[in-house]
Design a protein that fits this description.
OB fold (Dihydrolipoamide Acetyltransferase, E2P), five-stranded parallel sheet, 539 residues, five-stranded mixed beta barrel, alpha/beta, extended, Rossmann fold, 15 helices, 15% strand
């Protein structure tokens, strides 16, 4: 008999889901049910951005915790970066992560949970930088007394830069270079840090001069408005600056971390400009005072030296007294020297007479013959040695000469000749190109000289008037009565002479200028100005 098949009895009619279907349904339910939320909590487990650029951490309070993620594109736009233990208000959407069956919040905006959180974060950063020694007074430098170039990092459109420039002009004008940067909002901290590092990167003697002093300036505002100057990138850029830096951020009651790391902190931007350069009038008065003191001190020093010189001169003996005793000693020595010479001559004469009696010519002849014999012996030895050396060198030369071949020398001569011909052609070609370039440049300069020559102006109807010594006449005041003038026009030169003044015309009026006579220089200049539409002579 056939056995009946085994049948599974269904005990329920509930729908079956796959794991992926259930996870997707839960994900949709959570996202539709909550959407965008604002969540307050403390950051926990933050270790910085992942290698992918995303950030993963958790938000917790005293009883619960939720996972959080910030995508790379959102993280780069955040004004406040997450830090471990920081209490924040996160805005984003709640979703799930099916791979691990957990829910999380994808953060799209992040802000501190009130001013108290900002102050706590500020104090934490302050302790961190203080522990690194960035606030030590020993590392701060002195502000230069009279900087030639002042670099300012600030917004170029605000009232701060106008007030600072007004302060510079009222005290002592200086060369001011402004590095434009945003001082509030996203990316402002990076722009301020870039301005500080950019000024330090300038080289001495470059196209843009390197500043002797830097000023980071911004007007007053709330803690949130000034937060860019509390960022780590700005603080470290100010600490690394090789140029002395003045912080002028906010009003006198405001303070930021850059104030603590800067070499000096000004209460206002205008006060920073006053600190940067001294008052010009005070410098002039100080120079005058120092000049007067220098003259007085120099005069007093000269008078003291003159008094000391006179006193020392009175204490010195007379020149005749100084040389009297040496002169007496010299006379005594002179007398003894003459007697000594006579005695020495007599003694040497007696010695010579005694020796000359023992001198014979045979002794000199024997000495000369012995020297001649030694000389002949040395000559024979030298000749034998010379013949031996010559023979040895001749043998070496013949042995080496047998191995010599003139072909390498011929090849080198041939190669050198070909190389010389090639270089000669190249030199001629290069010379032709250089001459062509110089000829073009000369033609261009000639054209430019011709276009700038005053002869072109003469062709338009003007005239050049010169005096007797060749000087150019530029005013009628230079022309004296009876003076000969040389007038140059387009097609030649001619000579004119100013007539003597008319006595009747000169007595007519002493306060008004005399009308130029026909044919005079003034008449020619006036007629030339009228005919040219009101334009006078070229000179």
């Amino acid at each position: 008999m056939n056995q009946p098949a085994f049948k599974v009895k269904r005990t329920t009619n509930a729908a079956e889901f796959t794991v992926s279907e259930l996870s997707g349904a839960i994900k949709k339910t959570v996202e539709d049910g909550f959407g965008h939320v604002r969540l307050r909590g403390e950051i926990s487990g933050y270790r910085g951005p992942h290698s992918s650029g995303h950030c993963y951490f958790a938000l917790k309070d005293d009883r619960s915790k939720i996972e959080a993620v910030i995508w790379r594109g959102v993280f780069s736009k955040l004004k406040i970066k997450p830090e471990e233990g920081m209490e924040v208000i996160a805005q984003g959407r709640v979703t799930t992560y099916p791979n691990s069956s957990k829910y999380q919040i994808v953060i799209e905006a992040l802000e501190p949970a009130g001013v108290g959180a900002l102050m706590a974060l500020l104090e934490e950063r302050k302790k961190k930088f203080a522990a690194e020694g960035l606030f030590d007074e020993a590392r701060k430098r002195k502000i230069p007394f009279l900087p030639r170039v002042v670099g300012i990092v600030t917004s170029p459109t605000g009232a701060v830069i106008r007030d600072m420039m007004h302060g510079f002009m009222e005290r002592c004008p200086a060369h001011v270079i402004v590095w434009p940067a945003r001082v509030q909002g996203d990316g402002s901290a990076e722009e301020v840090a870039a301005g500080i590092r950019g000024f330090n990167a300038l080289q001495d003697g470059g196209r843009v001069p390197r500043p002797d002093l830097l000023i980071v300036a911004r007007g007053g505002g709330s803690l949130e408005d000034l937060w860019s100057f509390n960022e780590e990138v700005v603080v470290r850029a100010a600490a690394e600056s090789e140029i002395p830096l003045i912080s002028a951020v906010g009003h006198e009651t405001d303070w930021t971390l850059i104030d603590l790391v800067a070499d000096a902190r000004a209460p206002t931007p205008t006060k920073a400009a006053e600190w940067a350069v001294p008052v010009f009038s005070e410098l002039a008065n100080q120079i005058d005072e120092l000049t007067h003191r220098l003259k007085t001190a120099s005069r007093r020093s000269v008078e003291d030296a003159r008094t000391k010189l006179r006193a020392a001169a009175r204490g010195l003996p007379r020149p005749s007294d100084l040389v009297a005793l040496p002169r007496q000693r010299f006379d005594a020595t002179e007398r003894r020297l003459s007697y000594g010479l006579l005695a020495n001559t007599r003694e040497l004469g007696s010695r010579f007479a005694a020796v000359s009696a023992r001198l014979r010519p045979n002794t000199l002849l024997a000495t000369a013959q012995a020297a001649r014999a030694r000389l002949e012996l040395m000559q024979r030895r030298q000749s034998a040695s010379l013949h031996a050396i010559i023979g040895r060198h001749r043998t070496d030369f013949e042995r080496v000469g047998g191995r010599l071949n003139p072909e390498p020398i011929r090849y080198r001569v041939k190669y050198g000749r070909e190389r010389f011909v090639s270089l000669t052609r190249q030199a001629q070609s290069a010379q032709a190109r250089v001459i062509s370039q110089l000829r073009k440049q000369l033609d261009a300069n000639g054209s430019l000289l011709q276009s700038l020559s005053y002869h072109r102006v003469l062709e338009r109807g003007f005239a050049v008037v010169r005096g007797t010594n060749g000087e150019t006449i530029r005013s009628v005041e230079q022309v004296q009565p009876g003076m000969s003038l040389h007038v140059e026009v387009k097609d030649g030169k001619f000579q004119v002479k100013k007539p003597a003044p008319d006595k009747a015309a000169s007595d007519a009026s002493s306060s008004t200028r005399q009308r130029p006579k026909p044919g005079s220089v003034r008449s020619l200049v006036a007629e030339r100005g009228k005919s040219g539409g009101g334009q006078g002579s070229l000179f």
